[in-house]
Amino acid sequence: MQTAPATTGIDPAAPATPMRAGGPAAAARGEAPAMGIARSVHKDEEIYGEGDEARWYFKVTAGVVRTCKILSDGRRQIEAFHVAGDIFGIERGTDYHCSAEAVGEAVVVAYRRCSLEILAAGDMPLARQVVATALLNLERAQQHMILLGRKSATEKVATFLLEMADRVHVDAIELPMSRSDIADYLGLTIETVSRTLTQLERDGVIALPAARRNIVLRNKAALRRLNA
Questions:
Q1: Where is the HTH crp-type domain positioned along the sequence (predicted)?
Q2: Which domain holds residue 164?
Q3: Rounded CA gap, 41 and 46, in Å?
Q4: How much is the pLDDT for 122?
């Protein structure tokens, strides 16, 4: 039986639901699909901690996961939000460089870390997805660096809303993350995030229904102009 390090937030080797990454298509090709272990994760539950041994990587199948670091002064910087279909926990070194936590109730599939050559031999589609994810994460990290360093508060919020809408492919976004999460991702205060969203609503760019985590993008062209 596979075992995970004791320091990992969740134990992928604990009783769970096995899932094969390749599925019927891989079986039809005579391949041995990579075996993943599905785990349910509760709100704010840690999946792995910064400095834990990176023996697993994960794919989100439901919910949202945040990866973040705690700075030396105690502030939190959220590096990324991972939605259904995203792979996270891919590390160049032997340890995780940040922590990963469920934003709300989530389901992730854990895969035992191995070399890309071994993975490709067992499940080529998953290997391609891992490579594509690594490149996409690098691109998003570069964009996030520009967002943090060069954009105004309004531009940051507009960028975030467009990014989330593009990733979930809807204009009415139900954000599982709190205003605090958004603030720590954008490098802003909670008050600034709330004030900016209220101003965008007054300007008719977005709508904030009674359920305040629901945001409707009423004028994506205006958001894109702010994001330019």
A1: 151-221
A2: 151-227
A3: 8
A4: 62
pTM, rounded to two decimals? 0.75
Co-location of 170 and 80 in the same domain: no
What are 155-165's pLDDT values in tens digits?
999 999 998 88
Percent over 70 (pLDDT), the chain: 78
Distance CA 166, CA 169 (A): 5
Distance between CA 158 and CA 178 in Å, rounded?
Answer: 16
Q: Which of 87, 39, 38 is nearest to 67 (CA)?
A: 87
Closest CA to 100 of 160, 147, 41: 41
In a domain, 21, yes or no: yes
5-31 pLDDT tens trace: 334 566 665 545 444 444 333 333 333
Return the sign of the alpha-carbon dihedral for residues 208, 184, 52, 134: positive
